[in-house]
Amino acid sequence: MSQDPSLALASADPFLLLVVEAQLGGALDLVDGAWEAAQKPDRKVEDIAPDIRAQAIARLEAHLAHGARPLALDPETLARLVQFCVGEAVGADYVAMLLEEAGVVVRALDTAPPVVPASGDALPEVAITGAGLSGIATAVYLKRAGIPFTIYEQSESFGGTWYDNRYPGCGVDTTSHFYAYSFAINPAWPRYFSKQGEMLAYIEDCVRRFELADHFRFGTTVKAARFDAVAGRWRLTLASKAGGETEAEAQVLVSAVGQLNVPSTPAIAGIESFAGPVVHTARWTPGIEYAGKRVALIGTGASGVQVGPTMAKDAARLTVFQRSPQWLSHRPNYHLPVSQHERWQLSDIPGFVNWHRLLTIWRFADTLYLALLKGENGAASEANAKLHKQWSAYIEEKMASRPDLLPKVMPDYPPLTKRAPVDFGWFDMLLADNVELVTQRVARIEPDAVVAADGSRYPADLIVLATGFKATRMLHTIEIVGRDGQQLDAVWEGDDPRAFLGMSVPGFPNFFIMYGPNTNLGHGGNLIFQGECQARYIAQAVRHLAETGTRSLDVRDAVFEAYNREVDAQLDTMVWSTPGVDNWFKNSKGRVVTNSPWRVVDYWARTRRFEPGDYRAD
Asked: Does the model's pTM come out above 0.85?
């Protein structure tokens, strides 16, 4: 990338420049000189003295000229640099996580040699169902360990949710510099919040870089999996898209299909009679035309707030059917490209991308966690009340020119009780002349219209369902039979899934679930982060099988039960369990089964090391 280093350095975040220079040069004198400025709660770049900034730039230019690389500093020095970087005191648990996840230090697992099996035994083979982000992360860690694996994917290519979801406007709602693997940090994101195509290109690059292509079997669905206790292996029934069934087997089975893979289609009277296309956002195809059409959008969740503003620009009319209003967070740089200067900083200054990612993780991981907690007697906590005030003011500002809309779009429940997407332009869209917001329930659908509960009729040429997924019915499309013939769907009573760390269920040996029960994030972090935590844990478990000659691992009942008691106790303290508030996190019994009750750093710590004592070995 052609760039003037002097201009790029001059425009860089000086706090990042100072910490990067310190690691490149090994001296903390400039960091010490700017320490007070860095620790201000509302610090600004202007707080750094001009002479310190000038010295940092001069030193960095010298480091770049001499090809300097980041130094391996002692833990105490690194901890000090972390506090300087983020601008506040950081606990020891968080320091370790930030340094590893940002790639400032290399975790031991990443440099461990390939597995040497016990007594010359064959290595355990792993079957992975799903070629999305979690499945690919697992594949990378298994490949590093030298473990053989096959990835079965029902679609014709990899990518998971980023392959399936192609609706207009589709993109991330977590900043891209965090929404990436720690082992494949990307300094070249073109925008702060990537679009679907950019995410798919990133995944494709990872598949190529880590040489995974030969491990995929596309167009293949795992229809059933049965554990053979005598052989200690999983017997798989595979269904091909071309037709017919085949059999396969593996010692270890990993489900990487996740929670959000089966679209939820509402049972609306007359929907089959509609003359035009009816499409769920997760099943969008490029041939669907909406320009100049009358579009009915049913659902205002995460996909709805992206697809709506995108279609509204070209649709003749957009009618939005809203069941309940949404809290939306605001990111000022949501639609902005990353500047050429910043892309150069991230790509060409050694270590800059790592410290930039570290700061980004700090800001987007657990900042909102306290707002998830209830206050005394179940009332909103102080943190939640503060968030309520901030987000309410934002909506009021957006609706200033349409006070008639304000009651319709202002939520009456605590923030974070439901998933809070980023404002993609939703409130601005509602002000457009060709957009109408309907808060009446959809009563029925006729061949050319959607009819609301009050009898109002809204003509439509296209119906878009942004109605989410069957998140609580995890893995119900696969018949999974454990050690004693018990079926997982029966054990879970349909929509009441539980697992140790969200991954392991007693009676289902050598079976690990990714993005399983109580692992969805509702306040920060992201699913790549969660998936990597699980992938590393699973890789360690498989390594243990290989190195010890153990045939199978089955999580202990007492461990499973103790963990789930912890989960339930913590969930009771959180706003998701607020009575009378509906969300897709709860099952038919009202229990939150999708979301993790832990801070991001807590789950990271719990999954950091596989503990053989938690499992019965065979």
From this structure: yes
